[in-house]
Task: inverse folding
């Protein structure tokens, strides 16, 4: 996926300002940066949820706009942060929606196999007939990711999927995503607030500040004191423990 | 999975039995020995009930899915007042002669439907094309236009010739007891087209439940789809308004009963069950109006009354649940 000179204006405010990027395939890429840096907006533009004002985004050599909606939906899936659905819907039915681009609502044999696989992959098989309004935040988030998994796309874009998850579920979620990248060859792009999750699980990091691309590099190159201090305008300690880097920012 | 399917089928079968039962009762009860006459007379009415009921149900369910709100009905877009305005304008400019020629004929009906669909299409296109999240703005504009239309109508009616005004009243109170039989054929064809479209779109409508972003992610072009749906909704509402006059609450009662009865989000089940419920309500309502109340009240009054009570009840219930 290639992003060329993409900009977005809200009124007179430049939310995303001439971003040039190339997303590496088969990697877990984290988008980090201070609030209002334009991470979510960029992610939404990559997934055609909002229109860009200037620039182009190419997916497999074709501009995102020129893709047929349904074909694109087999290639790229996005999950936004707020998902409150006021519906009598079971987990299985929610996950089945992921097959919509493939079968247009008529569930085939292959579809139900994919749904079964998604359910078991995310530990939802036993509770598949529960209604989603009875689930905890963590279970609901998992159900949604399972839907994205069932959609079976090469690219998976997630906007702060760790919101409202406690540490245990957050770590589980990151492991699942890592697993998707390593064993299923997916490209995962994820907006993260907590840089420690990015430091531990991401292959590459895209840092954004004030709508501009700040740095795009391997994780080890970004999780450095001199980079992070300038990115967040604060004093961040980076230490290493058991081969992993951690950022301490409580002063 | 199979269990849910069976449960839905049982629920729909129960509705079918009730509808058939009441229909037979409505068609054959108290015919004063002249069954044939009663059948041909009531039969036409019965067909109109089916048409209005099905059209209203499909339109309202679709509209509520688009707006993601179980309280709104398409009448919020100002359809009823637009219908009244068109009728008033015709009487105002062409007077009693022309309108009596056009009265009850297909061209006027088609013109009516056409104007309503074109006007609403215009509105949707400009409001929804511009921005992504302008649906509520559209609803507000619709409400304000509705008020504007009815103000203009009232103004014109005041300065209208009293005789023509009298004729106009008769026309405006197109009601269930006074259905325009001559329009059934053309109405049937048009609503069939709309209903087939909605039926085929039902799986995509299901996806809309997940919200705009998730539906986009699943490959639905939400903006275009919304405009298409709203146009079809306009067509259906225009049809049923022209046939039976404005019925504000019918759609509201029917679809909310349907959601409760079926307890599913799948539009195909909702469409079928909703249509059955609305036919059931209309036929049984008309039966009571004719046979029990002996024409002392009209169907519209009954619907408005029952619907109003149900509406208030539902709001209070939702409020309690929110606490």
Result:
């Amino acid at each position: 996926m290639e992003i060329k000179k993409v900009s977005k204006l809200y009124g007179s405010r430049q939310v995303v300002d001439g971003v040039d990027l190339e997303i590496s395939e088969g990697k877990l890429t984290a988008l980090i940066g201070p609030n209002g840096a334009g991470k979510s907006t960029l992610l939404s533009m990559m997934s055609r949820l909002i229109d860009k004002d200037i620039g182009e985004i190419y997916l497999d050599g074709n501009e995102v706009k020129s893709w047929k909606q349904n074909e694109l939906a087999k290639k790229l899936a996005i999950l936004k942060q707020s998902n409150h659905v006021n519906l009598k819907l079971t987990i299985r039915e929610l996950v089945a929606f992921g097959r919509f681009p493939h079968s247009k609502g008529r569930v085939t044999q292959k579809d139900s196999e994919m749904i079964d696989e998604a359910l078991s992959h995310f530990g939802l098989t036993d509770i598949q007939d529960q209604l989603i309004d009875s689930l905890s935040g963590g279970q609901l988030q998992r159900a949604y990711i399972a839907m994205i998994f069932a959609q079976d796309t090469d690219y998976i874009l997630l906007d702060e999927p760790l919101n409202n998850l406690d540490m245990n579920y957050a770590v589980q979620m990151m492991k699942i995503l890592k697993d998707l990248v390593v064993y299923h060859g997916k490209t995962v792009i994820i907006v993260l607030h907590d840089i420690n999750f990015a430091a531990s699980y991401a292959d590459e990091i895209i840092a954004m500040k004030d709508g501009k691309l700040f740095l795009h590099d391997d994780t080890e190159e970004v999780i450095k004191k001199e980079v992070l201090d300038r990115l967040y305008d604060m004093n961040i300690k980076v230490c290493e423990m058991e081969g992993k880097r951690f950022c301490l920012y409580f002063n | 999975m199979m269990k849910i399917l069976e449960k839905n089928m049982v629920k729909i079968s129960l509705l079918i039995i009730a509808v058939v039962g009441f229909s037979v009762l409505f068609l054959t009860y108290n015919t004063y020995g002249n069954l044939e006459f009663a059948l041909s007379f009531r039969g036409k009415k019965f067909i109109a009930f089916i048409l209005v009921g099905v059209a209203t149900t499909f339109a309202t369910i679709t509209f509520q899915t688009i707006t993601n709100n179980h309280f709104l009905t398409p009448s919020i877009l100002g359809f009823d007042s637009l219908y009244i305005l068109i009728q008033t304008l015709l009487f105002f400019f062409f007077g009693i002669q022309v309108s009596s020629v056009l009265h009850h004929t297909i061209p006027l009906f088609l013109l009516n439907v056409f104007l309503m669909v074109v006007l609403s299409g215009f509105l949707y296109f400009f409001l929804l094309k511009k921005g992504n999240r302008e649906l509520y703005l559209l609803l507000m504009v619709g409400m304000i236009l509705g008020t504007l239309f009815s103000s203009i109508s009232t103004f014109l009616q005041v300065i209208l010739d009293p005789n023509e005004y009298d004729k106009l009243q008769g026309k405006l109170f197109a009601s269930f007891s006074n259905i325009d039989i001559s329009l059934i054929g053309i109405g049937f064809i048009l609503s069939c087209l709309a209903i087939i479209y909605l039926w085929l779109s039902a799986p995509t409508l299901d996806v809309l439940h997940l919200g705009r972003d998730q539906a986009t992610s699943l490959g639905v072009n939400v903006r275009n789809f919304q405009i298409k749906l709203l146009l079809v909704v306009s067509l259906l509402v225009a049809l049923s308004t022209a046939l039976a006059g404005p019925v504000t609450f019918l759609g509201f009662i029917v679809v909310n009963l349907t959601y409760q009865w079926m307890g599913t989000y799948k539009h195909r089940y909702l469409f079928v069950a909703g249509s059955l419920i609305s036919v059931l309500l209309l036929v049984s309502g008309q039966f009571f109006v004719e046979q029990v109340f002996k024409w002392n009240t009209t169907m519209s009054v009954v619907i408005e009354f029952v619907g109003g009570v149900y509406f208030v009840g539902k709001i209070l219930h939702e409020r309690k649940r929110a606490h």
Chain B has twelve helices and no strands. Chain B has a mean pLDDT of 82. The domain at 2-322 of chain B is CATH 1.10.3470.10 (ABC transporter involved in vitamin B12 uptake, BtuC). Chain B has one domain: 2-322.
